[in-house]
Amino acid sequence: MKKLEQKYLERLSDLYPTIAAASTEIINLEAILNLPKGTEHFLTDIHGEYEAFAHVLKNGSGSVRRKIDDVFGNRLSVRDKQALASLVYYPKERMEIVKRTESNMEDWYKINLFRLIELSKRSASKYTRSKVRKALPKDFAYVIEELITEKADMTDKESYYNKIISTIIRIGSAEEFICEISELIQRLVVDHLHIVGDIYDRGPGPHIIMDTLMSYHSVDVQWGNHDVLWMGAAAGQRGCIANVIRICARYGNLDILEDGYGINLLPLATYALRVYGEDPCTCFALKGTQRPEKEERELNLRLHKAISIIQFKVEGQIIARNPQFHLESRNLLGCIDYEKGTIRIGDAEYELLDKNFPTVDPEHPYELTAEEEDIMERLEKAFLGCEKLQAHMRFLLVKGGLYKVYNNNLLYHGCVPLDENGELKTVELFGRRYRGRELYEALESYVRKGFFALDGMEKQRGQDMMWYIWLHPNSPLFGKDKMATFERYFLAEKETHVEKKNAYYHLLEDEEVVDRILKAFGLPLEGSHIVNGHVPVKRKNGENPVKCSGKVLVIDGGFSRAYQKETGIAGYTLIYNSFGLLLVAHDPFESKDQAVRKESDIHSETMIVKRVLERRLVGNTDVGRELREQVRDLENLLEAYRNGTITEKI
Question: 135: part of which helix (H) or strand (E)?
């Protein structure tokens, strides 16, 4: 052990070759430990709603406005504060509008530059100069650093800074400078972003959201069930591919596939029109879209039905090759009496709303026709060959996982599978049994195998497990007894549509159960929280996102427009800053155009979930623990220098 420690210290001495260098770094790290902790921003269930997501990202769930209130207090009117916030969010667009009516742009530039500089100073105050310097825009780094690190003892500072500002305006760089410093403020107001699942499906812009996240300064992602579905599709898993296309068709978002990712749907569309051209496909009406174009709507209906039938066939094949999934009861194509147009489920027989199954062989209901097989082969190659999609999925693999423990908060999407007694449910996967954290880690391992395993069987298992995670009753990202897709399309009887939730959802107020979950993931019972996405909180029905006396925070309030009639709001987000936890409820976002023209923000209500008695410092965080370990190592290096075990490298 001592030899290993000696080798480690020798390697460390390469970075800090002298007593002075090691001492300086210790002083630096100790100082950082006493800075206020950075602000964490939690979002979940974005579901492709890019404009609302982008706005919440820009305003930091109200963090920018709170910072403006802190800095300017009563010095600015409410109207001026609103105008300044809008400038920070949309600097380029706001300046284009201002120029149409403002007679003295030079004064306007000067006033707003000074306000933005003052705001950026306060935003940068909780970071080291080194960290701020790394965040500075390349083109204006030196000038911005001069302006936001004002020297208090400088007797002629007023004229000095005035000259900088006037020169920026005189040489025609004011607008570019305002854009850069506005983005810097957005960057500094939020230190780290957590996405607690479901970037994909329903809304029109998940690919744009992914592009934004890939350029974000600090982010992690807890995969949601819809994200894992897209990951499975990108890995070539046919059940996932069919589900992805079906959901895009259902919500009128096939543009995501065709324009966003360049997936060619023409063979599928041509097939759908030929096979279902005379079929009204009334059971496959679009949801959550107001597209008026009749021809496009008609095509969507037929494509929707075509891919749904293919999906049910493909899923039957997955179930057949994975008997350990125990999903035989979901093989419903084999339960249909095609002559009578009825289906038997359990002991009951139901009449089908749609009785036209021209491509299903009653004797072999899960066999694809030759044309369907050709379509799936093409789609599989298209998903595997799409560079943009593969880049997005690799980002999710690098930055994401099924859960995360961060600063005594446990983040996950969905539920921890429990039995009715509130005990961690034991789940068998390919002959091995798992529960709690071990189940999450096993499932995550299979997801990664689905992309990277060299062994063919393990890779196939990994890909099929992504489909399992999407819809299996034992999946922590689904947590219901069945996915009633077939029943919702084909049966009028509402009782067949019911998907019974895992016991987790009605036990969230039981502190003993919540503590059991926290303990299973290695968290202390005092001061820890669960941050949970997946199930929209129906605020209009009186539901509360704060469960178990604040130990559980369910922050899916319905970003997706498809949910907002049910929830009454447009999403919850969470802020964890040095003063505590703030839960923010957002009203629906009109549009970027409205926000720019009217200088409107998303109306949000902020609830203090937890306020700390003493301001939380970096030293109280996970990063702080890592820094303390570095300090200990450096102190050991200092001792080695001083006792002659290691020689300085002068």
Answer: helix 129-135
